[in-house]
Write a structure and sequence with these properties.
By secondary structure, the protein is α+β, with helices and mostly antiparallel strands. The protein is built from four helices and five strands, in the order αααβββββα. Strands 1, 2, 3, 4 and 5 form a five-stranded antiparallel beta sheet that branches. Helix 1 packs parallel to helix 3 and helix 2 packs across helix 3. The protein is elongated and about 50 Å long. 30% of the residues are buried. The N terminus is likely disordered.
């Protein structure tokens, strides 16, 4: 039975896409933010009961994070002309842990704050940056999406994620 729990823990870690933690040292700032956010998710599940309940909780938290990322990306795209005109940085399409986000847990809510860049299709430089707050209410199970900022930026070939990793 212990082997199953070990596999389950590994799968939950994979589901949350924690593999991003094992990146080169040049990505330290983003990795530290990912670890903080992941710690928040783990804390949410500590009181879930036995190991099976905690595992289910971690899976649920991973699913919520992914949905929040998608809602944030869709809002950013929508406010900038839609997917026909803009594309978001790659981190908003891949594993959630690679997207630029923070998590907080005020009251009975989970707040996911995403900051990402967009560029006109078929161009190299990002010219727009959005900060989107996605809130999930644990009591009502309702989602709320708020645009905190959506502004033009000086053209840059660097995505927000790359900039945070000091790649650019």
């Amino acid at each position: 039975m212990k082997a199953i729990h070990s596999i389950a823990l590994f799968l939950s870690v994979s589901t949350l896409s924690l593999g991003a933690i094992a990146q080169p040292s040049t990505s330290a700032p983003l990795v530290n933010e990912s670890r903080k956010a992941i710690d928040v998710l783990v804390e949410l599940c500590e009181s879930a009961g036995d190991s099976d309940a905690r595992f289910r909780c971690l899976l649920t938290q991973g699913e919520r994070l992914n949905r929040a990322k998608n809602l944030a990306r869709q809002r950013g795209e929508q406010e900038n002309g839609g997917v026909t005109f803009v594309e978001t940085e790659p981190s908003m399409h891949g594993p959630s842990s690679e997207s630029p986000y923070t998590i907080s847990t005020p009251d009975d809510q989970i707040e996911y704050r995403f900051t990402f860049r967009m560029r006109p299709r078929a161009t190299e430089d990002y010219t727009q940056q959005a900060e989107i707050l996605v809130t999930y209410s644990t009591s009502t199970r309702a989602w709320d999406v708020i645009t905190v900022s959506n502004e033009a930026i000086a053209p840059t070939p660097c995505s927000y994620s790359d900039e945070q990793r000091n790649v650019c």
